[in-house]
Amino acid sequence: MADIDGIRKDIFGRAVIVSTGRSKRPGAFIDKKHREKACPFCPGNESKTEKTVLAIPNERNWRVRVFKNKFPVLHARNFKQVADSFFEKYTPSGVHEVLVETRKHDMDYSNMHEDDIKLVIDALKQRYSELMKIEDVNYVTIFKNKGKRAGASIAHPHLQIIAAPLFPDVISVEMEQSESYFKKEKKCGDCDMIREESHAKTRVVTHNRDWIVICPYVSTWPYQTTILPRRHFSEITDMTDEEALNLAKIIKKLFHGYTKIFDDPPYNIMYHNFPSSDFWHFHIHIYPRIVTHAGFEFFGLNVNITTPEDAAKMLKNVLR
Ligand SMILES: [Zn+2]
Ligand SMILES: [Zn+2]
Question: Based on the structure, what is the number of domains in the chain?
Fold first, then answer.
């Protein structure tokens, strides 16, 4: 895997992982006729992937299966500096895993059973906790790309887990913002926001005992949603078993809504964890990829063609 160049950093603190091996990934949007034979994530094709890291309930009859990514963005053991000039370069240390969410090639959260979605969450909790124990791992990223437009190279439902030595920029920025709110107000900003949104109701899509789904006030993408726990906790591993089941239920419901409006849309999901703290409130971002962003958005100032209030109303209506 010498195809991984490393983690590069410049004098402004910007970082990038350079990994050319990933361009050799199969362009595996396989047509329907050939998928069960060709899809490396379908049951029976386990030998086409790296060996199993976790299988629930067991390797033979797995319902959720985790293994190392064949084309990892990070893979090395130790995090150390390999170049120190005007620029810095580090070893690509970390772990990149794939979590196959179901045996069935064609499923999505909207038609998966909530108990099966719960198994996915259980598996994520286990892998997150294991990977966080590794020396040199400081952050575990969990995300999902569904559909070509969202960057998925294989259609079979799967999540990706990347354990890295550094915090992704988005997390560092969110951390600074929520920490500064906490210092000023002496309370968690998301706890305050949940109170505010529950009262206003206009951006609330749905809720249950443990979770709330909102279209954020500053939505940068149309129909973007955030799922937040009502109880304050920071990491997926802090979640109780009951909260995990209720999360599975609300995920199923939300994606039922998306499917009804957009008929199986591509999307990205990002789990925002942070080591337990008073200022960080665990949450999940969902970005349906129904529009393409253009040049202006590279400045970080997005133009959204749908108000979050209209998006919430539309989702709420189809979920009735
Ligand atoms: Zn498959
Ligand atoms: Zn909170």
Answer: 2
Same domain, 84 and 108: yes
* Closest ligand by atom to 43 CA: 1
Q: Which ligand is nearest to the CA of 282?
A: 2
Region 70-81: mean pLDDT is 83
Q: In terms of domains, do 50 and 128 share one?
A: yes
Task: Please calculate the CA angle 123-129-134 and round it to the nearest 5 degrees.
Answer: 125
Q: Are 232 and 212 in contact (CB under 8 A)?
A: no
Domain that holds residue 103: 4-166
* 89, 156: one domain: yes
Could you tell me if 312 and 203 are in contact, meaning their C-beta atoms sit under 8 angstroms apart? Answer: yes
Cα gap 251→117, rounded to integer Å? 8
Which ligand is closest to the CA of 191, given by its number? 2
From ligand 2's centre to the CA of 224, what distance in Å?
A: 20
Same domain, 27 and 135: yes
Cα 192 to ligand 2 centroid, rounded to whole Å: 7
CATH number at residue 220: 3.30.428.10
- Model pLDDT for residues 155-204, shown as the tens digit of each residue: 999 999 999 998 998 999 999 999 999 999 999 999 999 999 999 999 99
- Write the pLDDT tens digit of every residue in 275-294: 989 999 999 999 999 887 76
* Ligand whose nearest atom lies closest to the CA of 190: 2
25, 247, 255, 273, 305 from 206: Cα distances, Å: 38, 12, 12, 22, 22
70 C-alpha to ligand 2 centroid (Å): 37
pTM value > 0.85? yes
Query: How far does the centroid of ligand 2 lie from the alpha carbon of residue 231, in Å?
Result: 7
Residue 43 CA to ligand 1 center (angstroms) comes to 7
Residues 191 and 312 in one domain: yes
13 and 152 in a single domain? The answer is yes
